Amino acid sequence: MAAGRGGRFGGDAPKQFQLLEGRRLIEYALEALHESALVHAIVVVVPAGWEDRAREGAAAAGLAAKITAVIAGGATRQESVWLGMEAAPGHSHVLVHDAARPFLTQRLIRDAVAAVHEHGAATVALPVSDTLMRAQALEERAAATLTRDRIWAVQTPQVFERELLRAAHEHARAHGTEATDDGGLILGLGRKLDFVQGNWWNLKVTTAEDLHRAQCILKMRDLLFEEGSGCFE
After folding, report:
1. Helix 77-86 vs helix 162-175: angle between axes, to the nearest 10 degrees?
2. Which of 115-124, 127-136, 165-174 is predicted with the least confidence, judged by mean pLDDT?
3. What is the pLDDT at residue 7?
């Protein structure tokens, strides 16, 4: 999923095409997907008008071998996922990952794929440890404390049986449901969604500040790799 316009990020190019230590953000996730033996085809969903640049960029980076389609996304993430799924016929399962999450690992892919065989739907997520508060409407002022018991923060990748995901999207369309996450559509269908333990550093770059955080994580990861640490596997 690389179809977001990145309004909160700013800049001339969508955030997924911004540079992170000399490489486009999208290239980090593409590399991990290309390296996985569990991934057989990749559909890249980009903003309309960015198809050629995305295709040429992937080829220049040596990451085009598994890409079977580069298509324009829709007005919402939900529509973009639907379009991406329709561009990948003939596959039993679909893995959805945000291009703005550059630190995808082989462990996350393996664990998510393994978990999908239980109930047909699995998502990487993290239990919430921070205290949560709801703000007053249109104000930066606390209104109430929320319970964090059994609350998880959803990340990607997410893996689904293709026909289950298709049914969830069709059900949402029929009922006028909009969601920013496909797992929510699965729950709306009355089906189960399994959690897979994620990582704190599997961040999503949404703002310019997030890109600075990603730079720090990347430098930390490279240093630990040199020291033989398995922290970022």
Report:
1. 140
2. 127-136
3. 53
Give the C-alpha separation, 93 to 165, whole Å: 9
The secondary structure of residue 123, as a DSSP letter, is E
**Whole-structure pTM value:** 0.92
| Cα gap 196→123, rounded to integer Å | 6
- Given a cut of 60, whether residue 45 has pLDDT beyond it is yes
Cβ–Cβ < 8 Å for 204, 213: no
In the predicted structure, residue 223 carries a pLDDT above the cut 90: no
Report the pLDDT value the prediction gives residue 228, as an integer from 0 to 100: 59
Residue 4 to residue 88: CA distance in whole angstroms: 20
The residue among 189, 186, 132 whose CA lies nearest residue 158 is: 186
Do residues 159 and 112 touch, judged by C-beta distance below 8 A?
A: yes
Range of weakest confidence among 4-18, 25-39, 80-94: 4-18
- Identify the structural domains of the chain with CATH numbers, from first to last: 15-226 (3.90.550.10)
Which run of H or E residues covers position 13? none
Give strand ranges (E) for the chain: 19-20, 23-24, 42-46, 67-72, 93-96, 121-127, 132-135, 142-146, 152-161, 194-197
With 80 as the cut, is the pLDDT of residue 23 above it? yes
Axis-axis angle for helices 51-60, 25-35 (nearest 10): 60
